[in-house]
Specification:
The protein is mainly alpha-helical. 63% of the residues lie in helices and 1% in strands. The protein contains 16 helices and two strands. The chain has a two-stranded antiparallel ribbon. The protein is globular. The N terminus is likely disordered.
Length: 342
């Protein structure tokens, strides 16, 4: 036996158990990736919600790896290209995550008749900014709303227009809305539109063009209309709170996270915003904790999985998997704002 191998201490029972569970999760992930790839390549009918098993398998790999590195810190390896903390992901798993993303891009591709925009990112910024101005914000805080809108676009679809959803039969489009949510936003837009027409008639002209264009298509597959209706349904009522939110959370990424939580758990998030103590507002409803876990918060490792409540400060900190998307959103926003007009 080589000397180095001979000197390695034997694993404890808990370390062996953590290693066994990680290896099983990794093998399960490889298996479901291979199965989906085969089904797609052979043009087989996919199961209902074909992305859900993939998503759960990925989360199991990260969660059991965190358990393993907690039990055996020596297993923490080098950084990975996805910028996931090394304690949660072995860099050797990168090719599997590449395949994971590739499969989702196929399963969630926009339908052929979707109505895309040549300026999808600018559309989001323009709509969010105009809605915020109509809700009474000054120019500086309306800019923050535009940035927030772009962050939601990246969080929901990675900045891809008109996509489907391999994990849900309900949510579709650039901002991932249900039919009822989109219709509610459409009605609210009708009320706000005259206020916007007073200061941005060009935006209202564009809006009329998109309304005429959509015809009988599912409105969620028109990028402009889905973004508009989603913002009006979920976020417009929270925009007036942006000055207070920015004072409480000066970090732009925290601001984006908070508004993304309106997408995920709207009722408690709006209650937190109204509370006057957003950071300290505590969530303990098991259903809400489950929703958070289903969106990659408190999902990885035993300590997180056993949490029964969390403050909004803790929730924002747990959203680290969103950081890379939000950083790209901030970069894209800066690019839009510095681009010459005309």
């Amino acid at each position: 036996m080589p000397a180095a191998q001979a000197q390695q201490p034997a694993l404890t029972a808990s370390q062996s158990d953590a290693l066994e569970r990680y290896n099983k999760a990794l093998n399960d992930f490889k298996s479901i990736l291979s199965q989906r790839r085969s089904q797609i390549d052979e043009k087989q009918e996919l199961p209902n919600l074909p992305g859900q098993a993939l998503y759960r398998a990925r989360n199991a790999v990260m969660s059991t790896y965190k358990d393993l590195t907690d039990a055996l810190p020596v297993r923490i390896g080098p950084p990975n290209k996805f910028r996931i903390p090394p304690a949660y992901l072995d860099a050797a798993v990168e090719p599997l995550l590449d395949e994971y993303l590739a499969l989702f891009s196929i399963m969630q591709a926009a339908p052929a008749n979707a109505q895309s925009s040549a300026t999808p990112f600018k559309d989001v910024v323009d709509l969010a900014t105009a809605i915020a101005r109509a809700r009474g914000l000054d120019a500086a805080h309306a800019d923050i709303a535009g940035r927030i809108g772009l962050g939601i676009f990246f969080a929901e679809t990675n900045g891809n227009q008109n996509i489907g959803n391999a994990r849900s039969n309900k949510y579709k489009g650039s901002f991932q809305t249900g039919v009822a949510e989109a219709e509610r936003g459409r009605r609210k837009w009708g009320t706000l539109k005259p206020s916007i027409a007073a200061f941005d008639p060009a935006l209202i002209t564009r809006d009329a063009q998109e309304e005429a264009r959509v015809g009988k298509l599912d409105r969620r597959y028109n990028h402009w209309l889905n973004v508009r209706d989603a913002l009006m349904n979920a976020h417009a009522d929270a925009f007036p709170h942006i000055p207070a939110i920015a004072a409480t959370f000066p970090d732009p990424i925290d601001q984006l996270k908070l508004f993304e939580l309106i997408q995920i758990v709207p009722s408690p998030t709006k209650a937190a915003i109204r509370s006057g103590d957003i950071a300290g507002y505590r969530v303990s409803d098991p259903r809400i904790m489950d929703y958070l876990r289903n969106n990659s918060m408190f999902s990885f490792g035993q300590a997180d999985r056993t949490k029964t409540s969390a403050t909004y400060r803790e929730i924002l900190d747990a959203m680290w998997l969103f950081n890379e998307k939000f950083e790209r959103a901030l970069s894209k926003f800066d690019e839009i704002k510095t681009r010459p007009k005309g």
